[in-house]
Amino acid sequence: MRYSIPRFWREIKSHYRLVGTKCRKCGRISYPPSTTCRYCGSRDVEEIELWERGRVVTWTIIYSAPEGFNEYKPLVIAIVELLESKVKILTRLTDVDPEEIREGMIVEPVLRRISEDGETGIIHYGVVFRPPITGGGDES
Ligand code: ZN
Fold first, then answer.
1. Residue 8: what are its φ and ψ, rounded to 5°?
2. Phi, psi (5° rounding) for residue 86?
3. pLDDT digit string, tens, across residues 11-61
4. Is the C-alpha dihedral spanning 81, 87, 89, 93 positive or negative?
5. Ligand 1 midpoint to CA 59 (Å)
6. 118 C-beta neighbours (distance < 10 Å), count
7. How far is the CA of 31 from the centre of ligand 1 (A)?
8. Residue 7 has what pLDDT?
9. Burial (CB count within 10 angstroms: exposed 0-12, middle 13-18, buried 19+), residue 49
10. Three-state SS sequence of the chain
11. How far is CA 26 from each of CA 21, 36, 84, 88, rounded to the nearest angstrom?
């Protein structure tokens, strides 16, 4: 796995929206957003919303979570490639049985409570991904 777990915990706390930056020079999208294009170094970038479905590229199941995340055990952390922008995002999967996760599985973003600071009462929200909710009993 390319991403370290400590980096995941740092990043997820700062991501309340699914936003990247698009370079006006080379057209590529940086995620997480950056004031400098990570591909060509241009500073001519604009923020764009990346709220779109993606597919699971790879995932890791974590059975021991840091303090404050215990209610999510086991945790499923995945790299999801967004369908349109092709941006890869490190995220948590929710509402899914770890046994049922497959490479290429389609997931959609949803805003969820990430953690609660017991001392200050501050609740952190973040973007996580889940299998799409298909209403009406559509089995396809
Ligand atoms: Zn660029």
1. -60, -45
2. 65, 15
3. 554 456 788 899 999 999 998 889 999 999 999 999 888 889 999 999 999
4. negative
5. 29
6. 9
7. 12
8. 65
9. exposed
10. CCCCHHHHHHHHHHCCCCEEEEECCCCCEECCCCCCCCCCCCCCEEEEECCCCEEEEEEEEECCCCCCCHHHCCEEEEEEEECCCCCEEEEEECCCCHHHCCCCCEEEEEEEEEEECCCCCCEEEEEEEECCCCCCCCCC
11. 12, 12, 17, 18
Name the amino acid, one letter, at 76.
V
The alpha carbon of 33 and the centre of ligand 1 are apart by a number of angstroms equal to: 12
Q: What is d(CA 45, CA 11) in angstroms, rounded to the nearest whole number?
A: 21
- The CA 46 to ligand 1 mean position distance, Å, reads 11
CA distance 62 to 74: 6
In angstroms, the CA 49 to CA 126 distance is 14
**Interval between CA 103 and ligand 1 midpoint (Å):** 30
The answer to whether the predicted template modeling score (pTM) of the entire model surpasses 0.70 is yes
